Amino acid sequence: MLALEIEFLTGRYRATNFRERDAGEWPPHPSRVFSALVAAHYEAALGPETREALLWLEQQPSPEIAASGAVEREIALHYVPVNDSSLPPEFRNRQPRTFPTMWPVSPVVHFLWPKAEPSSAIRGALDELASFATYLGHSSSLVRLAFHDAAEAAVTFRPSAEGVINLRVPRSGRLQTLDQRWKQGQPVDAGAFERYAEVNANSDAPTGQSIFDEMLVVRCEEGRTVPLTATINLTSILRDAVLEKVGDNAPAIFHGHGDAPHIAYITLPFVGRQYADGHLLGLAAVLPRGLSRGDRHAVIAAFGEIEKLTLGTLGNWQIRSVPQPAGVATLDPETWTRPSTMWATVTPIVYDHFPRDRDGRRAEEILAKSCARIGLPMPTKVDLSGFSQFVGVAPVRDFRIRRRDSDPPRRATHAVLHFDRPVRGPVILGAGRFFGLGLCRPFKLKADEPAKPRT
């Protein structure tokens, strides 16, 4: 066995999520740790023995990870001088930057390779590499690295084909790729990915998790642009297409008749960026947690056969399954599932019950119970608004919230949900959750910035 102990000396980990520059990374990705060891090799001008150790390490299976939970600090905006300038720092233009920071419950993380058996020469070279590695992620994220032959640590993340967490990992040839990109002056690419499953969480603040789990994503390859406000139309069409594939004897997992857990259908819009306009890039079927292997395979098979959606007057959408992780953040499940203590709506939540109040208290209670209905902890605070916190999302009044004109009137709202612990998605709430309404996304305020007021 081989174990790598990583101690964050300042109690914090400052590293940017590769999918979203305003989000932090947790747990540390194995590829980032590998890059830190490569940096130590070159910065300390170590010999060929440590290079051989890196070549050996990149050929090992992806490690198991033992890490506590972590809380993300609220983002503060900093203005820093640009680097690509010949002027002294005090005369350079300043650009806004953020430094996402995670505060783990325990500052010590372990990477574990249960079947790794390095030779004595490799083992000594790994020790030398670890002794020269001083930071992980941002240069202010100081660490102490040490390799051991064993570690008494409870595994919390394990490689799994059915996992929902995508972590960057080194593969054979990674060192050569890093060398080439450095010589060519190119930024480091994301590299390879491995699916991980979260197991045996040992955090003092356990992560909350809803009844919703794996996302099967398809993207629009060809077709007219469709706005986010048409969510319920698109998800209804997708559901009908899936039911047509499985036939009249479709299991309850597909249609939801009875009390059995079933699929939710959601849209995936371009939102939350400076120039986001809310148009749909794709859709997803969200599987319920605890699905049997047979039902899961049946859903994957049926979903994978759909190549076209007929949108009526808008023509057709040609769709294609998206391998994970996707190159586009919107189509990457981690964008919609990563743990967060704050979640904000992308599509409005349709109230499970009609709120009959003037001050919003009854409405907030209904949304809190909607969280409990999908297995989440009760939120500590609920902010209601007619508008979303995300750029590109239309106000509530622009959304269609009834599938049929004959359906009874409903009320809906945008909201920000605050929890006392990290919550993992997908988070889909309210009466329209199985058709993509009430879809939330991890959210955080910048320092001293209030949520948009309720209107």
Molecular structure report:
With 455 residues, the protein is α+β, with helices and mostly antiparallel strands. It folds into 2 domains: 197 residues, 2-Layer Sandwich (Alpha-Beta Plaits); 231 residues, no CATH class. The protein has 9 helices and 25 strands. Strands 15, 21, 22, 23, 24 and 25 form a 6-stranded mixed β-sheet that branches. Strand 19 and strand 20 form a beta hairpin. Helix 1 runs antiparallel to helix 2 and helix 2 crosses helix 3. The protein is globular and about 75 Å long. The termini are far apart. The relative contact order is 0.14.
Short key terms for the protein model shown above:
6-stranded mixed beta sheet, alpha+beta, 9 helices, 2 domains, 455 residues, 5-stranded antiparallel beta sheet, single chain, Alpha-Beta Plaits
Quick recap:
With 455 residues, this protein is an alpha+beta fold. It has helices spanning 30-43, 48-57, 120-132, 174-183, 231-246, 252-255, 293-304, 333-337, 361-373, and strands spanning 2-8, 13-14, 16-17, 20-24, 64-66, 70-72, 77-81, 94-98, 101-104, 108-113, 143-148, 157-159, 165-169, 192-198, 208-209, 212-222, 264-269, 280-288, 308-310, 316-321, 340-345, 349-350, 381-385, 412-424, 440-442. It has 2 domains: 2-198, Alpha-Beta Plaits; 212-442, no CATH class.
